[in-house]
Amino acid sequence: MSTSTLISHLRQASKNAFPKISSLPSTLLLTRTASPILISKRALTSTASKGLSVVPGVNPLRQYSTPSLTIQNEKTNINQAPALAAVAQDESINDSSSQKEKQEKRISEIKDAKLIFNQAFKNVQDIHGRENMKFPKEIIWLMGAPGSGKGTHTPAILRARGITNPSISMSSLLATPECKELINKGMMVSDGKVVENLLHALLDCEPEVGVLVDGFPRSEAQVECLKLFHERMHELRKEFKHTPLKDFFPRPTFRICVLYVDEEISVNRQLMRGKLIQEHNAQVMRSGKGEIMEERVTDFDELLIRARYQIFKDHYSCLLKLSKIFPFHLINAVGSIDSVMRIILKEFEYQSSLELEHDTYEAISHIPLATKIGIHARQDLIRRLEHYCETEPDIFSKAVRFIDHEVSPMIARHAISGQALVRSDNTILSDPKIVEVVISILSERGYAVTMDERVHETPKRVDPKTFEIILERTHVYALNVRFPQHHIQPLEQKF
């Protein structure tokens, strides 16, 4: 069969199958060679939906090509085009659909969290009343891997922040039989129940001294609920700001603290804890002394332990989102108890920028911190002394003479006590530059110096016309000089 005859038959077949597609010959190229055959995307879509008839005797198509898919297969024929097109389309949109699904899931979770939180807050508010929704100003949200020592290190955190409210443990709040059954299976309690119980517990605290919450948040929805809770506390503050209740609705301070250990350490610690509890309980049973400790299922089953750690890993990314909003403390809890406690105390030191109201902080932030004031003090001291010695030698020499004649003798006299009080009415101390040089020289030599100026008024005479008492004013300067005290060992203690 000639090429012209073949094309004629194929045109007729395509017209019978697709009457509306008149442009097929312009997009379908056939040759006797194995060169590619190009089929337009529109024709391919129609083919996929209706099928394509092929005149008997035509050699199988050896290569099929579209802009998004290239397949080389000796057994491929045009009847396979619809399936191949579907595969190509699935692969091309796989990544984008996956991203879209994640985004839709994220939006859905946020919407669900709003419903969960709003309903839980309404339930609690209906019981306590709007004006009694007085939550603690500072809340530390403590999270950690299983076996990271949250219970062990909680007292150190409370001491560091001066918190006297008992800590809130989510495991204790969810200690009902139904919740225990879910927890023992490695499952989680519903977020709505968790949030509602938490709000009730927070309202039972003294709001002035803060509180620590152990075990919240643990899921994406709970993270969103935490954000919503912070916003709701701000709303309450604005609502009651100009009322007699304003002191009960301060600016909220949230801190996120995460204790981290890796999986193997977590597993070993929990298994060891279970073993120690069993040994303790056995000893109590034998001796009859002491109290039986609770034996948790998750302290003996390694599979459950690893399942709990996996839950922590799965939700850790949720916790990291909070680091962009609140102070976030990630603490390595692998070391000894003492070393971890030192890290915790350092992390939770007082920070005025986080704890003061914004306006208050802005008003005082220009005053240098005591911890920073002495960083360059030594360099400044040397610079001052060099400046006065080179540019104002007269002032420098007067200051040295004053120290030699009035200060050094008093220091020598009180050498054992470690402190000398030097009083002087020398008028050269009325010059601030000389005072600065005196203090700088003594400081360079290792003395700690403070200076005080006082004015003594002495009656001298009475004005005969006005009977006014005329006073004579005398300036007295007092230098308090401190230095290391020398201890002298009594003679009898040597024998």
- Let me know the average pLDDT: 76
Query: Over the alpha carbons, how many angstroms does the gyration radius reach?
Result: 42 Å
What's the shape?
Answer: elongated
Number of domains: 3
Short description:
It contains 18 helices and eleven strands.
Description:
It is a single chain. With 495 residues, the protein is α/β, with parallel strands linked by helices. The chain has 3 domains: 3-89, no CATH class; 129-363, Rossmann fold (3-Layer(aba) Sandwich); 377-492, Translation Initiation Factor IF3. It contains 18 helices and 11 strands. The strands form 3 sheets. The chain has a 5-stranded parallel sheet with strand order 5-6-4-7-8, with helices on both faces. Strands 1-2-3 form a 3-stranded mixed sheet, covered by helices on one side. Helix 16 (377-391) crosses helix 17. It is elongated, with a radius of gyration of 42 Å.
Features:
495 residues; alpha/beta; Rossmann fold; Translation Initiation Factor IF3; 5-stranded parallel sheet; 3-stranded mixed sheet; 52% helix
How is this fold's topology laid out?
Layout (H helix, E strand, L loop, with lengths): L2 H15 L6 H4 L9 E2 L2 H10 L12 E4 L2 E4 L8 H48 L9 E7 L5 H12 L6 E2 H4 L3 H8 L6 H13 L7 E4 L5 H21 L12 E8 L2 H25 L14 H21 L5 E5 L4 H11 L4 H4 L2 H7 L5 H4 L3 H15 L1 H21 L5 E6 L7 H13 L3 E15 L6 E14 L13
Parallel strand pairs: 1-2, 4-6, 4-7, 5-6, 7-8
Antiparallel strand pairs: 2-3, 9-11, 10-11
Helix pairs in contact: 3-4, 4-8, 4-9, 5-12, 10-11, 16-17, 16-18, 17-18
